[in-house]
């Protein structure tokens, strides 16, 4: 059975992705940080890892791009989930009895309007959504709530006091599955993540984008990251969809002539709906 690394514990959103993407065909290994997840895959401790890469509200998780690139990991899959935050506490609790609600900073930010002018509750940042739920359950902490997933409430026996409390209801996060090795060519491969850098010449980026158009490739994302060793110089990370692998290969050969560096971060199946 393959081992899959996740950031967080059982009941976290990464745990939810692992369960839904792989069903019960893998062993889920928990880590506290994305660095540990990426390194566990790079070092061969786990065959695969799951990493959040962008959120429809908060944008890209830039450090994770750097981890994937720096450790030469390959993106072999992607998965999207709606992030639905639930307010939970010990069974029998009421919202008006809560003194503290703790969760990951991003979860608190996405739910802040729910607590604004409504309840006299102190919001406390913590390292993981599910970790808070587990701690409340195991230590029987009264008058304290957690913001976490339905999975967390079920796993740790907490009662959901209010459902889907996030301010923006259509809140989606994209996760990528990473491996040391790329996927072999098959008919379902229709998306690629590419990194490239360009010289400071007029129209250099436009030339690359025009090449994508020439070969009927669709740009779904572009992200720039600074090249640390060279001040004010940037690498570009793009996601593109394509109709055939041959179109992808032809376009990359043309881009290679225009770029100072080009690197394939992964070729996989497009799951964007």
Report on the structure:
- Strands 1, 2, 3, 4, 5 and 11 form a six-stranded mixed beta sheet that branches. This protein has a five-stranded mixed beta sheet with strand order 8-7-9-6-10. A four-stranded antiparallel beta sheet has the order 13-14-12-15, with helices on both faces.
- It is an alpha/beta fold.
- The two termini are 30 Å apart.
- The chain has nine helices and 15 strands.
- Strand 13 (218-226) and strand 14 (234-241) form a beta hairpin.
- It is 30% helix and 34% strand.
- It has three domains: 2-83 and 171-179, D-Maltodextrin-Binding Protein, domain 2 (3-Layer(aba) Sandwich), CATH 3.40.190; 86-162, D-Maltodextrin-Binding Protein, domain 2; 191-265, 2-Layer Sandwich (Alpha-Beta Plaits).
Gross morphology is elongated
Q: What CATH architecture of the largest domain do you see?
A: 3-Layer(aba) Sandwich
CATH superfamily of the largest domain: Periplasmic binding protein-like II
Overall structural class, as computed from helix and strand content, comes to alpha/beta
Helix-strand string: EHEHEEHEEEHHEHEHEEEHEEHE
Briefly characterize the structure.
This protein has 273 residues and is of the alpha/beta class. It is 30% helix and 34% strand. Strands 1, 2, 3, 4, 5 and 11 form a six-stranded mixed sheet that branches. A five-stranded mixed sheet has the order 8-7-9-6-10. The protein has a four-stranded antiparallel sheet with strand order 13-14-12-15, with helices on both faces.
SSE layout:
Elements: E1 2-7, H1 13-22, E2 26-31, H2 34-42, E3 48-55, E4 59-60, H3 62-70, E5 74-82, E6 86-89, E7 100-103, H4 105-110, H5 112-115, E8 122-125, H6 129-139, E9 144-148, H7 150-156, E10 159-162, E11 172-179, E12 191-197, H8 204-214, E13 218-226, E14 234-241, H9 245-258, E15 261-268
Parallel strand pairs: 1-2, 1-3, 7-8, 7-9
Antiparallel strand pairs: 3-4, 3-11, 5-11, 6-9, 6-10, 12-14, 12-15, 13-14
